[in-house]
Amino acid sequence: MASDTPAPEAPFDSFGAYGPAGTGGEEWNPTEDSLRAQSRSGGRHRVVKQRSNFARSSTVLGVGVIAAVGAGGLATAQEKPPVAIALPDLDLPDASALPGIGDLIGGSEKSSGESTGVTNNPQPLTALTYTTPADASSADAPAGTKQQADAGEALRARILQQAEQQQAAADAAEKEAAQKAAAEKAAAEAAAKAEAAEKAAAEAKKKAEAEAAAKAEAERLAKLAASYALPTSSYTITSTYGQAGSMWSSGYHTGLDFAAPTGTPVKAVHSGTVKSAGWSGSYGYRIVLELEDGTEIWYCHLSSMTVGAGQSVGTGETIGRVGATGNVTGPHLHLEVHTPSGDGVDPAGWLRSKGLGV
């Protein structure tokens, strides 16, 4: 039997858009929990910390990088030649055999083409070709390729030019070093030659000077020999200057003895003036001849004298004769030489200095 009492409804929870629905007539407040927390924490409302600017900047930077890479890929693709894409041949039915299509294209293809103004496609439907715009494929790509070729050629030319310049600099440096070494070698050789020539010239000059000096000395001695003469001839040297002995009052011999026979001529050794002529004690008869420079020549033990005081005589002129007067043991000529200051010297050395050999 039917009852008019309605059946009890099964309890269930209703759900809203963001969770269980509230009771009928109650509006759901999503901030209710946060407001309760605020009331429990003292009335302060804490705001959730937002993300830093660095995160947002990183996101923007990543998007920019991706965009740049995509733009670079597009630019690179435009520079590439067209790529042909081929599809496999499909066995398609004729369009006129399709239901409901044949009536629409019942006319000839020529009339439909002329009426619609659509030209036939020379390419079959089975071939699909990807092409770039005419201006990009025919103008931009060759221009970019040409620019790349020109840049590469310019770089290659620059590298070759730098290599040539470096090689030229190295060659110039090597040439300069070789020239410098050659110049230094030539300078050293020239200096050595100059030094050798200077040394040879100095030696030649020294030798020439020595020869000239020897020649001058020989000429001088020749002139002296011509202007000086030995005091006698045919003689024998019996006593020399400085010889010691008790027979001489001074203890030594003060002159040079020329032993010769009595009467042997005695000559003037050089031109001069007779200072004195006469007896002189142990010297016997003596003649003192004064030369132009003041030197005195003493002729002693003469047997006779042919000149007097104040008389001028010449070289080689006879002024007396050998004798044995005074303190003697035999006939001889005792010859003494005194300087202008009065000192006695060795007669043999003095005669040799005048170019006369004794």
UniProtKB/TrEMBL annotation:
Domain M23ase beta-sheet core: 252-347
SUPFAM superfamilies for this protein: Duplicated hybrid motif
Biased composition (Polar residues): 118-129
Superkingdom: Bacteria
Keyword list, A-Z: Coiled coil
Coiled-coil residue spans: 156-227
InterPro entries reported for this sequence: Cell_wall_metabolism_enzyme (IPR050570), Dup_hybrid_motif (IPR011055), M23ase_b-sheet_dom (IPR016047), PcsB-like (IPR009148)
Extent of Low complexity compositional bias: 106-117
Transmembrane stretches, start-end: none
Annotated spans, Disordered: 1-50, 101-129
GO terms, molecular function: metalloendopeptidase activity
UniProt protein name: Peptidase
Biological source species: Streptomyces showdoensis
